[in-house]
Specification:
Strand order of the largest sheet: 2-1-4-5-6-7
Largest sheet: 6 strands, antiparallel
Structural class: alpha/beta
Order of helices and strands: EEEHEEEEHEHHHHEHEEHHEHEHEE
Distance between the termini: 32 Å
Radius of gyration: 23 Å
Oligomer: single chain
Length: 381
């Protein structure tokens, strides 16, 4: 997958901006606060309909404007699509080739991206919801059905929590209805577990080797810390464990009015040699673990979709030493379209600069500088 053209209207700090992209490497250079990250963010929104930064959709609209629009021309082999995300203060409208797409699940996966930003350290350091969100986004890009199961599951959770509160207030309520809700919840949870275990199995197929090649350290895996205590996916075991948990936790759930068991309570741990990296790894090791995870995602997307997603790298090389930087670059194959931001071109290696399209950003103005072919400053050889 490649993005060939991007047009922004009233998006963040841009009144209007149009860009054509190289199919391989594109590098945006400028000081902080000039709008480099906003360009990557717009591509992310074009793909997934939501920002990868904190805030609400209306924050994407330029100050004192009413509407923001992101338009992109996307190529997947011979297939070309025109995608559009229109954002107002009250709603969001999606379209592909001029046809409105009413359901997000029918829009996502038409154009896939993998993103890394400095804030991604929260994937390890942050709350379980950050890690759940990461996996939900990635799996949703690969399998449309996953979004359906996730939305249906979340709807049932709300119904169940509301009914638990009702039961707590009125002990004479019908517990048979709770059994029906439980049955529906288990059905959707089973599907979610199936996708999550499959995805993590694929990640762990690559992750130890990729991390070792970058850092020299052994033993990085993702551990699925799920509320059922499952070590592998098994539908019959899931149904039995859910039943046991619901019986055991009923009194506590009635008192709290919440569902204590299920995919919405799960966590995913970055484990290095059996130790949770959140507590025992340095920030540098954590950063390399997340980058390794993103590289593994590239392989998985290629294997399932038969094409690489677009890779968005927001100022990641400035805090990585040259040795590790060179090892990371070896994974960036020529057929992976990569869009990079940096404050200093000296942070970018020769291998990436060669034949890359260079864009300079200053005072919200983007100027394309063409390509650098083999020319290089002496201080970065």
């Amino acid at each position: 997958m490649k993005i060939e053209h991007l047009k922004l209207t009233n998006f963040r700090n841009y009144d209007s901006l149009e860009l054509d992209f190289n199919k391989n490497i594109n590098i945006f250079i400028g000081n902080n606060g000039q709008g480099k990250t906003n360009i990557l963010e717009s591509i992310y929104v074009l793909s997934l309909t939501k920002s990868n930064r904190y805030g609400i959709d209306s924050d994407l609209i330029k100050f004192q404007e009413e509407v923001a629009k992101i338009e992109g021309t996307v190529r997947d082999d011979a297939l070309i699509k025109k995608q559009e995300v229109l954002i107002t203060k009250f709603k969001k409208q999606l379209s592909i080739n001029g046809k409105e797409i009413r359901k997000t699940r029918d829009y996502i996966s038409n154009f896939c991206v993998i993103s890394f930003t400095p804030n991604d350290l929260e994937i390890i350091k942050g709350s379980p919801s950050v890690r759940r969100n990461l996996l939900n986004i990635d799996i949703s890009q690969l399998y449309n059905n996953y979004i359906n199961y996730l939305n249906e599951y979340n709807s049932i959770i709300k119904i169940r929590n509301d009914y638990l509160k009702k039961l707590n207030l009125n002990g004479n309520s019908d517990y048979r209805y709770l059994d029906i809700i439980n049955e529906k919840l288990i059905e959707k949870a089973d599907k979610i577990y199936s996708y999550r275990f499959t995805f993590l199995e694929k990640i762990n197929k690559y992750l130890p080797n990729v991390y070792k090649k970058i850092t020299g350290l052994d033993g990085l895996v993702i551990q699925y810390d799920n509320s059922l205590g499952l070590e592998k996916y098994d539908s019959d075991t899931i149904k039995k464990k859910f039943g046991d948990k619901f019986k055991r936790n009923l009194h506590q759930e009635l008192m709290q009015g919440i569902t204590l068991t299920g995919p919405h309570r799960d966590d995913f741990l970055f484990s290095l040699d059996g130790m949770d990296m959140k507590n025992y790894a340095s920030q540098g090791q954590q950063r390399m673990a997340i980058i390794a995870f993103k590289i593994c995602e590239l392989f998985i997307f290629k294997g399932i979709l038969d094409s690489y997603p677009v890779l968005l790298l927001d100022d990641i090389f400035s805090e990585i030493d040259t040795k590790k930087r060179n090892k990371i670059i070896k994974f960036l194959k020529s057929d992976i379209q990569t869009i990079i931001t940096t404050t200093d071109i000296n942070d970018i290696n020769d291998d990436l600069l060669k034949d890359a399209s260079i864009y300079m950003i200053n005072n919200n103005k983007v100027t394309k500088k063409g390509r650098i072919n083999n020319g290089r400053r002496k201080d970065n050889k």
